Amino acid sequence: MEFFKELLTIFCTTTLLFGGGFCYFTFLFGSAEQKGKRAVQLSGGSLPKEKVQEGYDRYSSFFEHCPNGNEMDSSDKVPALVDTFYDLVTDIYEWGWGQSFHFSPRIPGKSNRHAMRIHEELAVNLLNVEPGARVLDVGCGVGGPMRAIAAHSGANVVGITINKYQVERARAHNKKAGLDSMCEVVCGNFLKMPFDDNSFEGAYSIEATCHAPKLEEVYGEIYRVLKPGSFYVSYEWVTTELYNSDDPEHVEIVRGIERGDALPGLRSYKDIAKIATKVGFEVIKESDLAKPPAEPWWTRLKMGRIAYWRNHVVVMILSWLGIAPKGIVDVHYMLLVTADYLAKGGDTGIFTPMHMILCRKPE
Ligand SMILES: C=C(CC[C@@H](C)[C@H]1CC[C@H]2C3=CC[C@H]4[C@H](C)[C@@H](O)CC[C@]4(C)[C@H]3CC[C@]12C)C(C)C
Ligand SMILES: C[S@@+](CC[C@H](N)C(=O)[O-])C[C@H]1O[C@@H](n2cnc3c(N)ncnc32)[C@H](O)[C@@H]1O
């Protein structure tokens, strides 16, 4: 009898501990890093719950069929693939990273959130726009940068993203932040933008144009919609001068980044200014914002590793319970893997997500 009583006590204590811990992670702790999305709200974006696994399989098979990445260059399937990718990852990004889907140099003594905001404000400071100016955000995500930039500069920001679910999220966040009168979000393809010629006084893109199969197409469109004399600034994902295409380790890191981040082939830093000039821009400034004295942008990823594995356990349990969609576990695992490749890209110095280029459309 005593033995059964003890067994029951052990069973109840273990259940309470695991159950309590799990509820803490998912309900109380909520978002993995910043308050916002909660684990129990993870979805497949615009994809119905039962289509998430199919969406992931379609996404990953695309990379299996073109293992050397460059075959995607000629593909007109890229925007649709990128759209599916953001259906799959948007909630996980918001849950585990926040509303700004980019990196920033670490700033000792400042929070990640603050460092990200400084990086965003730098972009609009470079544009030199007056309050009330109409500024374009090319590939706006759920609008973290857009809101920071509108609040900091007083500009009216119009964001474009190919992903419908992100449009819904961005509009809801804009409203909640009381910035919906200054921030507008449009669903569309930045390779063919639904805007008039010469209709913006400034434009920026933060870690978004890397998704374009041909950079000249998106740069050409930005050039078209900008008023003469206006500036465009971009933070580009590129390989640096340290990248050696004959080094198998370098090639593996780059392929890993491309697969986990829906990229149709990473470009070299050398191509960016050439392409900007080709479409008609004057290049005013170009620099890698990750270079010292900037502190490493990838420290945040490395420090987050334990939390990301904990998140993986939460995602597995939620999916097993039928709360999170089937397929989300594979998506989360893909992100775990890409986080390591990105950190390796930073450690080796062969990759930067913040190659900054400032251009001007001539008068
Ligand atoms: C510009 C792009 C996205 C850049 C980053 C915002 C994202 C790149 C990799 C993402 C993440 C990796 C690991 C995830 C982790 C496993 C999960 O538990 C919580 C979210 C992550 C940290 C996630 C967050 C966003 C990234 C850092 C690309 C796509 C061009
Ligand atoms: C990594 S996110 C960056 C979002 C935002 N700039 C930020 O920093 O939070 C890339 C964005 O580019 C958008 N994007 C990619 N390809 C696109 C295309 N062809 N047309 C429009 N948007 C696109 C994605 O939908 C996503 O919003």
TrEMBL record:
Pfam families cross-referenced by the UniProt entry: Methyltransf_11 (PF08241), Sterol_MT_C (PF08498)
Alphabetical list of SUPFAM superfamilies matching this protein: S-adenosyl-L-methionine-dependent methyltransferases
Annotated ranges, domain SAM-dependent methyltransferase Erg6/SMT-type: 85-362
Biochemical pathway: Steroid biosynthesis; sterol biosynthesis
Entry keyword set: Lipid biosynthesis, Lipid metabolism, Methyltransferase, S-adenosyl-L-methionine, Steroid biosynthesis, Steroid metabolism, Sterol biosynthesis, Sterol metabolism, Transferase
EC numbers for this chain: 2.1.1.-
GO molecular function, one term: 24-methylenesterol C-methyltransferase activity
GO biological processes: alkaloid metabolic process; methylation; sterol biosynthetic process
Family: Belongs to the class I-like SAM-binding methyltransferase superfamily. Erg6/SMT family.
Protein name per Swiss-Prot or TrEMBL: Methyltransferase
Organism: Solanum commersonii
